[in-house]
């Protein structure tokens, strides 16, 4: 039903091409405040070369800017992209915006918060293992003023940033590719590589190597795609993605991270091999727990062909676990 939700609207190939362009323009529009302020800061310091240095490191301190201000500016640009995506869905494809989330077009908030909460717990457990292996790499850097401002900014803006990526990649693009190919497998694999491609400019890629980080991003994308298809909706993936970015901005940061913030803890140099292993183990455990909680039976749902017919009207039961069909 998740893929068929897109069939309610117009789905010509040129609409998707136009949609991607409009979303990209929205993203560029959202970067205007960041661009203006970084250019102003570089001029104030008499060195326009700092703009390039900032672009490579995403470290706002090189421009003399407060880290929290820079962090907020970096997140605001996703609001422009989200607006662009809304325009595309409503006016180009002519279907409800929330059909990107699921067929009924109603967000199941309990799934979002459950997914975010479980992923935070798994992240803390994985971090605990890393700390036991290398405790000298962890340094407490708590500064009350900066930290609490960070928490407010992160809670206010990261849900929009993370949700945009899910709505665009595993909502818009995965639904479109699925409808075009009638294959869930192709849609999941293709968008996992696209997801990795969108993160190639992140400083982690330069810091830790292309092969390792592309592998990491593809596996994360595939995990989130599997969640989406298994649960017939984006809520769990949105929760996990939001939790990942909240964790990486509030609790722990490291040199080379795309999220340079005054987080609670700074890690010297993460062991990316252990990070990759912990991600795979956490994702596996998450899938097992979610399967039991939501009653997912069998894995054939991931490989079933996608019908070309439009979905029936779906109304969620009160427990939001088992949808019922009303004709």
Structural class: mainly alpha
Query: What composes the largest sheet?
Result: 3 strands, mixed
- Helical segment count: 11
**For the CA atoms, what is the radius of gyration?**
20 Å
Distance between the termini: 14 Å
In the sheet with the most strands, the strands line up as: 1-3-2
Number of domains: 1
Helix content: 55-70%
Can you tell me the overall shape? globular
β-strand percent reads under 5%
What is the number of E strands? 5
Order of helices and strands: HHHHHEHHHHHEEHEE
Multimerization state: single chain
Give the overall pLDDT as a whole number.
Answer: 88
| Poorly predicted runs of 5 or more residues | 313-327
Structure summary:
With 327 residues, the chain is mainly α.
What does this 3D model show about the protein?
There is one protein chain. By secondary structure, the protein is mainly α. It has one domain. Helices cover 65% and strands 5% of the residues. It is built from eleven helices and five strands. The protein has helices spanning 13-30, 32-44, 49-57, 67-92, 109-133, 144-181, 184-198, 203-208, 210-231, 235-251, 272-294, and strands at 138-140, 252-254, 265-267, 314-316, 323-325. The strands form two sheets. It has a three-stranded mixed beta sheet with strand order 1-3-2. A two-stranded antiparallel ribbon has the order 4-5. α1 packs antiparallel against α4 and α5 crosses α10. The chain is globular. The two termini are 14 Å apart. Mean pLDDT is 88; it is low at 313-327.
């Amino acid at each position: 039903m998740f893929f068929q939700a897109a069939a309610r609207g117009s789905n010509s190939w040129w609409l998707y091409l136009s949609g991607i362009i409009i979303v990209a323009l929205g993203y560029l529009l959202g970067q205007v405040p960041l661009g203006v302020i970084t250019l102003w800061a570089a001029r104030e310091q008499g060195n326009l070369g700092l703009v390039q240095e900032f672009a490579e490191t995403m470290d706002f301190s090189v421009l003399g800017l407060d880290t929290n201000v820079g962090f907020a500016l970096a997140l605001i640009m996703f609001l422009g992209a989200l607006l662009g995506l809304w325009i595309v869905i409503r006016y180009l494809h002519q279907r409800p915006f929330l059909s990107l989330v699921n067929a009924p077009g109603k967000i199941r908030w309990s799934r979002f918060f459950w997914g975010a909460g479980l992923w935070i717990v798994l992240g803390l457990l994985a971090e605990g293992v890393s700390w036991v292996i290398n405790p000298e790499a962890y340094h407490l850097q708590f500064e009350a003023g900066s930290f609490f401002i960070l928490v407010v900014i992160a809670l206010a803006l990261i849900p929009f940033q993370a949700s945009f990526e899910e709505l665009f990649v595993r909502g818009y693009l995965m639904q479109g590719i699925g409808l075009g190919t009638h294959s869930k497998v192709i849609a999941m694999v293709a968008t996992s590589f696209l997801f990795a491609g969108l993160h190639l400019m992140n400083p982690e890629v330069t810091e830790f190597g292309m092969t390792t980080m592309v592998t990491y991003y593809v596996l994360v994308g595939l995990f989130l795609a599997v969640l989406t298809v298994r649960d017939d909706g984006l809520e769990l993936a949105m929760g996990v993605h939001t939790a990942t970015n909240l964790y990486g901005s509030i609790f722990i940061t490291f040199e080379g991270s795309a999220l340079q913030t005054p987080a609670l803890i700074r890690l010297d140099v993460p062991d990316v091999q252990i990070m990759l292993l912990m991600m795979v183990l956490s994702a596996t455990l998450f899938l097992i727990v979610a399967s039991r909680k939501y009653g997912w039976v069998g894995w054939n749902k991931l490989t079933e062909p996608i019908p070309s017919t439009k979905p029936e009207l779906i109304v969620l039961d009160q427990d939001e676990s088992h949808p019922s069909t009303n004709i």
